[in-house]
């Protein structure tokens, strides 16, 4: 039986070798850059070779939501750049800039496994040099929903995203539909300012129990984590109403609000029904309509939505 | 003598032929495009061939000031694009949008003679489609000088220039130093937003009698044209003071103001001394300082400046 074992071993070894080799082939060399010029140079070299570039801008602490964006970018482009930058300009003075979760090592592993070519991870000083004073903003789209309680948020988002677009010059950029207003704002900005990048919105990724994936879920205590299910549960009720033919925005909002109010740990920031393109309130479901909510669970503000 | 004349003629003919041939070689096919996509496609084809692109954004009614920008672009780049677009977004409600002079045929001839490859001449609807609401602006640089009486002007300039940069993707863009504040604003915007275009400022071009070239000079009556010389004359006095060692901004402003006030048809909008990079007022000439004036001659508002 010795020979037999020996053969088994050698086959195993052979398979191992093949697997390792394949892994090596798949496991390309991902680079992490902190300097704008490094990214620019790398992308210019790719473009000279005619390669297409997909881009996923993030604030890091990556989860499966981000991974779904990276996977889409990986499928549709020759090269993939992910930026990891907790952008000070989009946080209000009383918001969670300092406590926002960060874990570059874990993020880097997720990106490498997902086939990312470059992580751009700049320091704030690299992005906002001395004397910085420019911004991008819009009249409309940014005043409703999250814009009500986060008045400078979207200015910061637009500015940093346009800066990143100028650095990465992507053919396609990927944004999660969880931040639905952000997606609408970026689409509008790109159209208005003639940015030559296709904006691709990707579906919300949820935990098994329905909670939308978010880096901020990490703030939740065990009780709050349970209470947070009220967001997806209430939206499910709203969605069912729409599917049953309900057209009245008020009826849908009332049903969602009633469900959220049953949860003692929840405090509503907004429950709104808006046109998905213009982010202006509508009375009736018509065309592409966004039903969006923001709810404080304890001190943590969570958002969720569906498209009707 | 007949043969001699004949020889002379043939030499002349020969020279003529050479000249015509050279002219033909120089006289390439200039294209005038009205659609964003046409410009994008042409520039992309150039870039694939590794050609560099110089860009001169204008509002048309071109004069030798513009030509000096085009000439610089022609010298330093493989291809040259000139945009001719009277941008509604940078005019205030009481300003001269409707009466701003326009002459596309004359402009096209000047551009063709100067070796321009593409004129981009869009309609306002092409640049500002339905639902347009985005803008680029900055905190600082835009509040002093022309910003005081033209509060929305620089927002309009920044927005249209960034749009044009996204369409033309120039390696270098050329701006006249006559619009010194505009030049400073565009330089700041490009730096802040990481636009991959080099901004090149070019010297003021003047009429023989000293008046800075401007499309708006066409508004002046004969008397006003004469009175308008007070701008360059007063700045010359200011410049002489600086050259003689005067450091006090107040002394320089006072001397310029006194000279302008001698001219009955002139009414001062501003006489200011500012840091050329930050466009903030300074008390002393130090570093690169901008001495800038805006003066109404009758109803026509003219600007001029020098760098101290």
Keywords, separated by commas or semicolons:
Pantoate--beta-alanine Ligase, Chain: A,domain 2; homodimer; alpha/beta; EC 6.3.2.1 (chains A, B); 308 residues; Rossmann fold; ATP binding (chains A, B)
Name the CATH class of the largest domain in chain A. Answer: Alpha Beta
CATH topology of the largest domain in chain A: Rossmann fold
Number of domains of chain A: 2
Mean pLDDT of chain A: 92
Q: Which homologous superfamily in CATH is the superfamily of the largest domain in chain A?
A: HUPs
Number of helices of chain A: 11
Q: How far apart lie the N and C ends of chain A?
A: 66 Å
Query: Secondary-structure element order of chain A, as H and E?
Result: HEHEHEHEHEHHEHEHHHEEE
Morphology call of chain A:
globular
The helix-and-strand class of chain A reads alpha/beta
Low-confidence stretches of chain A: 1-8, 21-27
Task: Tally the beta strands of chain A.
Answer: 10
Percent in helix of chain A: 40-55%
Biggest sheet architecture of chain A: 6 strands, parallel
Q: Name the chain pair with the biggest interface and residue counts per chain.
A: A-B, 31 and 31 residues
Q: What oligomeric state best describes the polypeptide chains here? A: homodimer
CATH architectural category of the largest domain in chain A: 3-Layer(aba) Sandwich
Radius of gyration of chain A from the CA trace?
22 Å
